[in-house]
Structures are given as C-alpha cells and as structure tokens.
Fold this protein.
Amino acid sequence: MPTQSLTDLPEYHDDLLIMKVRPDAGLLATPGALGGDFRESSEAPGLSTLALYERAGFIKRVIPLHGAALRAAAPAGGALEGIVAAAASFGGTPAPNNGVTMLELHPGTNPVQLQTALGDDASIEYVSRVPVRYLMVDTTSAATPPPADNLWNLKKIRWAEARAAGLPSADGVRVAVLDTGVDPGHPDLPPLRRYVYDYGIPGGSTSDSDIVGHGTHVTGTICAKINNALGINGVCSCSLSVLKIFSDEVTFIPARNSFAFLVDPVLYRAALADCIEQDEQVVNLSIGGYGTPDPQEKQLFRALVENGCTVVAAMGNENTAKPSYPAALPGVVAVGATGLDDTRASFSNIGSHIALSAPGVGIWSTLPTYPGRTGNRAALSAAGKIVPGAPITRETQYDAWDGTSMATPHVAAAAALAIAKHGAMTPPNVVKWLKNASDPVPAMGSSAFTVEYGSGRLNLAKI
Amino acid sequence: MKSIFFNARAGAAPEALDALVEELRARVGVNEAGPLRPGARSAAVQRMFYATLDADADADALVRELNMRGEVESASIPSERHLAQD
C-alpha cells in the first residue's frame, strides 16, 4: 500500500517553541524581585528550566517577534536576555507581538519538557509548539486528461483502428516494467500479476511507494484499463509485473544542481535476474545512462534475450548521438520519441541502434494517487554542505509527461500485442514485427531507416 | 553506499565461491555480499554476485583484487542508470 500521504506530514516543528511573557511579570522592572537572579529562582521555574536548557546547549537561538526587536538588532546575550528584551517591548507601542519570542532548539532536544516547565511559570502568558503549515495545493484535484478516445498518442499509433480490425488482447503475455514502482491502488490500473520491491537478498529491498510516479506513468501507458470511463486507455491488456529498481534516497546531480532518484544497481540487477527466472516475455526499461555496461550488466541482458524476452528500452533524452544503455546493447529494442507532427522530439537521442519511434511528447498517463516528488532542489545546510532542499513535487492521479521514457511503453505494449497475435516467437522475430509495424514519417524522406526515427513511428494497425 | 558486481568463472567450485563471499562479508567496509539471485536456475545468473560497500570504502581496490582471483571472471563498478524522462 502507498506509504506517503498528507497525514504523514508532521503537525509541529520539532525544534520550535513560541512563548509570550506577561506584561506584569516584572522581569524588566525588578528582576531582583525574582530572587536577585531568576536563573535560579523557584518563583520562576520555567525560566529556571530555560536557563538550564541554555547551559546544557539545547537552545540554538532566541528569535524576538515583538516590534521593538524587529526594528532593532537582536538582543545581545542568551535566552534569558532575549526574554527580558521581550518584556521590555511592553513599554513601547502597543502591539500584538509584544512580549512574544520564538525559541529554536537544537535538533534532538525534546521540546515538550521545556514547554511544560515554561507553561507552569506564572510569568509566562502562554507557550506553545509551532504548527507546521503547508502550501494549500489541492493534491486531490489532479490534472485532468482529455477524453480517453481523444488521446493524441493512441490516435497516432492507430490504436482504435487496430482494435476494430481485430487486434487481440495480450492478456496471456507476461510483461514486466522495471521502474520507480507503481501505485497498485490506482483505479485506472488493472490488478498486477506481481509487484516486486524486495528481492530476497541483503540490501536488496526498498519501499513499495512510487515516490517519483514514473513507474505508474509507464504502467498506465502499457495497460491502463480500457474504456472503463476513467482517465486514459492503455495500449493493451496484459499480464503485468512491476519491479521497483529505485531506492527512496535522492542523489546530488552537480550538472543540474539538484537531487534526483537514480537506479539502485543492486535492485536493477536483481530485477533483471528475476525477469530471467520468471520467464518474462517483454521487459520495459524507460531508463538509460552513458556509462559503458560492465560484463555482468551485458550478460544479464544477453541471458534475458536468450531466454526469449523482448527487451524494450528508451533511447535517451539528451539530443545526442552518444549511445545510452541499456538501449544500445545488442538485442535491445531502442525507442525514440516523436511529437504530434510526427517529427523527432527535440530531446530524443539518435543512433544506428534505434529500432523505431513512438509518441513521447505530452503523453497523458496515470500517476500515483498519493503525493510525491521527482527530486529535490539543492540547499545549503548550516555547515555549508549541499543537502536536499525543497521537493520538486508532481501531480497525482494523471499528468502529461515528455520523454523517450514515455515512448518506450507504447512499443513494449506493441511487442505484447505482436506475441498475442502471432504466437510466441523469438525476440529477433518480435523486433521484425515491430519494425514492420511502423510508418516512415515525412522527415525520413524515401529512407526506410534513419538514425533519428529507426524504421518510423509505431502503427498498431500493421501488427 | 557503493556497490560492485562480479561474475564467477565458469566451472568455479561452489565451495570456493562460498568462501569468497564469506571473506568479503568479513572485510571492513563491506556491508553485504552474496549471489545476485540465490537458487537461480539460469546458469548465467548462478554465476553473478554483488557486494555493497560503505561510502568511503575503496571500491576500485576491491575490484582490482577480485579481478586477480582465479574463481572470478570479471569484477566491476556499475555505470549509473537514470530515468529517461525529459
């Protein structure tokens, strides 16, 4: 089940207390009345406790909120001097924040004990924890896709015509998506055959939450429920497994100056091995990377293909001819992205290994029903270290995304449909069917193959 | 955390591979080590192993060392893979 929701967010700041001294507490006029030094006074037990906390190093800083202090420099000295300065604010212009101070505690300090002690102090009018407030983005009113019979990508690949002409369902074909996870509770997704996020090896497990939403998006393109009066239509109905290959930790990407989720190498390889063991027939990999594959990564793909699995992977989104892997590995069906006008998407990579193209711009599909993020902006910690900052949030339910990631599942679903229609066959034969089931686009001129488009844009009516 | 991966040489004795895994697990800086898919029926997968290391561990040195072992066919540090979403 999903593990992230608004109810999981904290109610209070762990490190903050807000307090107001009484105007008649006498802290300013006669501090001596509290026993000469209220640091040790039994008549001001809360302030004594505050002094204790300060001596123990639990108080990070005192933030005056009263007008006098805001107009002037922060009071010199420690916490108690700050409280006295707050009391002094009653002598100035009357204002709601006179006497009000915020106490910031060092991480790990229990704020409740100090709150209780200050609350028992007669010189304190009130002391409270500080509630967390969030942006009021309505995460339940998600972006709304166009009517399911008007999705440009399905029209472009002639989905409805192919179905009307008798293209069978791929219910019996085993398809696996290796990605960021999935929200199996999405009402527009069919029941999954398997959802794997624990591979049974030490260090080989992660949560079941699809934080990024990418896997749920890819899954929807392949097999969202068809004509169910909800959201979108998937390309096919098939026997789907989702295998999560991302950890829940973000990594700093210097080139982007932000934090992103990366493929966890152990989960990735364990998932590929699982697909071999489970005899998956089609695998969708909407991932890539320019680093040369090591022998084990190559062998996993070789074993997968030799086991009869058609592996479909994204060309990459950097508008480069540099090969991205696993798309550039032998036997892998590499997919480029096209837009509404059947031209190559500006980001889509090129190369002689490209097999064909499919729609990959503004693709509406499912997203988890719970909030999530695609990464974090970079921030500087107090120690000057780069740390994850503000989350880069995503929509819930549905959204339109761009990428060769989004083109790839169209072709993975087409591979499943080809197997359903023509029977089990070797991956090279599936590739032949897929290449035949594509239309050369105008930009290809008279060529049957170009490094930008492969054999053209997918056309399901030709399967 | 870092990870490295290695493949056993075809025909390597299972006892030697078990001993290698135990040796890795006992090393300072190594968190986990073992077969990628215990009990795999695929012969290729049976020969695949992994190890996870502390962030400050010398992965290059371990890979070099493993590549010199008779029971290891190849050991490597993995290349980074990421989403292909624009």
